[in-house]
Every structure is written in C-alpha cells, then in structure tokens.
Amino acid sequence: MVLREVVVNSEIIEYNDISGCYILRPWAMEIWELLKEFFDAEIKKLKLKSYYFPLFITENVVQKKKDHFEGFAPEVAWVTKTGNSELEAPIAIRPTSETVMYPYFAKWIRSHRNLPLRCNQWCSVVRWECSNPIPLIRSREFLWQEGHTVFATKEESDEEVLHILELYRRIYEEFLAVPVSKGRKSEVEKFAGGLYTTSVEAFIPNTGRGIQAATSNCLGQNFAKMFEIFFEDENDPAQKKKEKNKRSLVWQNSWAYTTRSIGVMVMTHGDDKGLVLPPRVAPIQVMVIPDPLEDADMTAIKEVCETIVYTLSQAGIRADLDARENYTPEWKHSHWEMKGVPLRIEIDVKDLANKQVRVVRRDNGAKVDIPSTDLVEHVQVLLDRIQDSLFETAKQKRDACIEVVYTWDEFTAAVNDKKLILAPWCDEEEVEKDVRARTEGDLGSAKTLCAPFDQPDLVEGTVCFASGKPAKTWSFWGRSY
Ligand code: 86X
C-alpha cells in the first residue's frame, strides 16, 4: 500500500484543504509523544532547558540577516494583514528559529559563567515548499524539536554534536526500527550557515530514495559573528584585565528531528494490509478482540478479556479491548491490522475452556496459543521479538540496496537501478554539482547523502568515480527526498 493511502487508512493523518498541511490524529501524536518522552529525558540529562520563542519574525530581522535567509527566501511565509488592515511591515512565520533566538543569546551571554547555554524547544515550523508535498515527509508545517546550544570551546561543541547524533540514531534504530547511517554532509548539502553538518540517513528500498532522518550541526563561530555573541573568557589573560573589544566569540550547535521520522517509519515497515508498528512506538501494543461464537457466554468472555487487558497494563504493556458489538471480529481484525497494532489476542469459548488465548503477530501473521497463566511473559517476549525482527528485516532490505561503485558507468547504472550507492569520492563541491547536473532527470538528480563515519578501507590509489582525481572518502549517493 502506498504511503498516501496507509497514513489515511490507519488514521495517522487526515488531509486538510491547504495543500501540504495535514491533521495529525491521535495515532500519530501518540507515536510522537513516545519519541518525545525518550528524547526529552535524554537531553535533560545533558542539562538542556526548555524554552518557547515566538512564532513570528519581524521583517527587519529578515532583512538584517539576509545571508541566512538567502536561498530559503521563496519558502518563507508572511503575515501581511490583521483583520481588514494591512500591517505596516509584514511579519515572517519561523521556518527555523536562529534569527528569533540568537539576538537574545547575545543579550543573555556576558561571561563564561553564562556558558554553556543549552536551549531546546518543541514547536512547529512553516516552510512553504512548492515541490510536490508528501504527508509527513515533505509538509509545509511540521512538528520538530530544535536544540540550540552555546559553548566556550569547540571541544564541547564537537562532543555534543556527536552525542545528539547518537540519540537520533537510537530514535530511529531502537524505537522506529529503521536502520540509519551516521555521517558527515558534503559542503553542498551541509547547513550553509554552519561549520559542519552531521546527519543520520535512511533509505526507502521501495522508492529507491535516501532520506535525511535528522541533523546535528556544529555552527562554529559564524552565527556568533553575525549576531555578535561574545563572552569574557577567564582563560584569556587580556580579558582578565577587562580590556574592551577583547571578548571571545562563542561556539554554537543546532540540531533537529521532525515528524518526518514517523513518515520514514511508515514507509519502512508498511505492507499490503497497511501500517506495521514497531512495539516500542505503538500507542497500542496488544489489542484484545473477543470472538463471540453462537450461544457463547458473552459475559464470561468479556470478563476474561478485561482481566487480560488489566494484567497486561499492570505489567506496563499498552493493551486495549475492542468490545464493540456493532462490528464483526473479522472487521476488527483487519481494522487493527490496518492500524499496525503489533499483537492481537483472540478469545472464544474454546479458549475459555482451555484456559488459553490465541496471539497473532502483525508483522508475519504467526499465530500461537498461549496458556493464560503466563501471558505477560509470553507477550513481552513476542513484542521484543517483533521489534528486533522489524529492524533486522529492514536492515537486510536496506543493505541489499547498497551498491559499491568505482566508475561513472557503474554509478549511472546504479542510479537507474535506484540503489543506495557507496562510492569513492574526491569530496569536491564542483564535482558534486557536476554529478547533479549530469544525472538530472524526471526523478530528480543524484546527490550525496553523507560520508558515513563507518568507512570501508580506502585503498591507496583509489580514484573518484566522477572526477578521476584521488578519492578522499567513501560517500553514500542516491536520489533523495
Ligand atoms: C536549515 C538549520 C538548522 C535549527 C538545523 O539544521 C537544525 C535546527 N536549524 C535549518 N534551514 C534553514 O536555515 C532555513 C531557513 C529559512 Cl529562512 C527557510 F525558509 C528554510 C530553511 N530550511 C532549512
């Protein structure tokens, strides 16, 4: 089933009359909240504090920080009117919050005692993309967290970039069961305002496209210069004497992941019957469905069902009962399959007599009869197995798409085959631009995804697949979202 159908049929989203804007229904929000719970707890360990900065940016700031907005300008949405009157100056809606936050960082930071400053906000941002929108993957408004941190030294900043990137890997691999590669973005693909960009990259075998899953930037001192963010440095002897204009520039990072993560998960695991949810992010992990045969004692069946839900819930398993009488069990089975619930428990009179329940896995359809006495242990084991198996299956499928190429001909063949390409590269900006131009077509051009941290050996004398110059790194290439 294609993404557009799965997300609506499984009640993750509903379409809205504004193209590229989607209603996130509880099935999406509960997944988002589970991810948020993990991530928030982890960044609080790193002493991140919560903030909320305004949604609006004055035109004045946009003008002053033209360099930052350059290239992105067509995506910025503006408010020009209130009620019936035109605003004196239009107000921009944040596409990201650097320009909203950093003037205040400049105000709040005076000395090394104000550092590090670590700020995170959960909010939505608006980017008025004109290319064809895709629910959750490319939408005009999306939810994200944006972390913005400020340090006295580059070492602290470098360390945090990687720590956050590892949290993003865990969100994808341990929660969403989506394999990702950590790596560094090329000069063309990095956040232009920053020093270097790291990312986790996923790949969708069905469409043959790479997708940036989350990004963690080291901004260096570029924004500090633009926004005049200085501090008095205790380690700088000149500053001890409080000499004017001898203050140091701060080091900054910024990092984000978005509701796109849910879209990547949906595309990775979905099948003909709809959504398949990894247990760790499933709002409901076990759905109990009574199967009333004729003349069955429904009160007894329902009581057993309620006990099961209670027992599982007590053990920390997210379980629920579908006791609706106006739907058949068959309808309920396919409904909860469509919504991707990892386990279904069916109960009928025979089970009641045998003191057992039938458990059905969403991912592979396997059915097992389990004695009701040790249900919790069995369910726990099954949920863990489903989680692992979804990840392993996704990883095998992803790995099967990886193609190592050494020459331009191998490269273009692999692009046409929708592969995730791993190629030795000279790492030059002009060469990447040239590759883009030479591969331009209806499906878009081939780009770098990242240079993976996990590098195969680069044998001495290996040349770049595109330029023939000495290769400096292995890099992932492919069409992307
Ligand atoms: C780049 C950079 C950065 C904070 C992150 O990667 C992590 C979280 N932000 C985001 N970016 C823009 O700077 C940008 C700016 C404007 Cl004005 C825009 F319209 C769209 C943008 N898209 C991305």
UniProtKB/TrEMBL annotation:
GO molecular function, one term: ATP binding
InterPro entries reported for this sequence: aa-tRNA-synt_IIb, aa-tRNA-synth_II, aa-tRNA-synth_II/BPL/LPL, Anticodon-bd, Anticodon-bd_dom_sf, Pro-tRNA-ligase_IIa, Pro-tRNA-ligase_IIa_arc-type, Pro-tRNA_ligase_II_C
Lineage: Eukaryota, Viridiplantae, Streptophyta, Embryophyta, Tracheophyta
Domain Aminoacyl-transfer RNA synthetases class-II family profile, residue spans: 30-278
Reactions the enzyme catalyzes: tRNA(Pro) + L-proline + ATP = L-prolyl-tRNA(Pro) + AMP + diphosphate
Pfam families named in the record: HGTP_anticodon, ProRS-C_1, tRNA-synt_2b
Xref: CDD domains: ProRS_anticodon_zinc (cd00862), ProRS_core_arch_euk (cd00778)
Keywords, comma-separated and alphabetical: Aminoacyl-tRNA synthetase, ATP-binding, Ligase, Nucleotide-binding, Protein biosynthesis
Repressor recorded as keyword: no
Organism listed in the record: Aegilops tauschii subsp. strangulata (Goatgrass)
EC number: 6.1.1.15
One Gene Ontology term from the biological process aspect of the record: prolyl-tRNA aminoacylation
GO cellular component: aminoacyl-tRNA synthetase multienzyme complex; cytoplasm
Protein name: proline--tRNA ligase
